[in-house]
Amino acid sequence: MEREAKKEAFRKYLESSGVLDALTKVLVALYEENDKPSSALEFVQQKLGGPSISEYEKLQAEKSDLQLKYDELFAAHRETCRELAELRNLKLTTSSKENTDGDKFKN
């Protein structure tokens, strides 16, 4: 009984959100196609506004390339930050050493 209620609630959710209508329209369009596409799944995805399989693969490759570039830039950024910290430490060390040496000469 509880399972049937969940199914009915889910069906109402799909209906009220327009999912059933959209799927029905796409399936009717596929049915009415004279020349059936070689990939029904790609047809459905394209009609629902998603990328085709080839577009998806191209986007995945682009994402992978961008991730590599990001990783390289992030590593360079970390190295630059490390060098900056070293230079700051060197400046502080040199500055404090000069102050200490200057005090010695004043006395």
Automatic annotation (TrEMBL):
It is found in: Nucleus. Belongs to the AMY1 family. Keywords: Nucleus. It comes from Musa troglodytarum (fe'i banana). The lineage of its organism: Eukaryota, Viridiplantae, Streptophyta, Embryophyta, Tracheophyta. InterPro entries: AMY1. One of its GO terms (cellular component) is nucleus. One of its GO terms (molecular function) is transcription coactivator activity. This is c-Myc-binding protein.
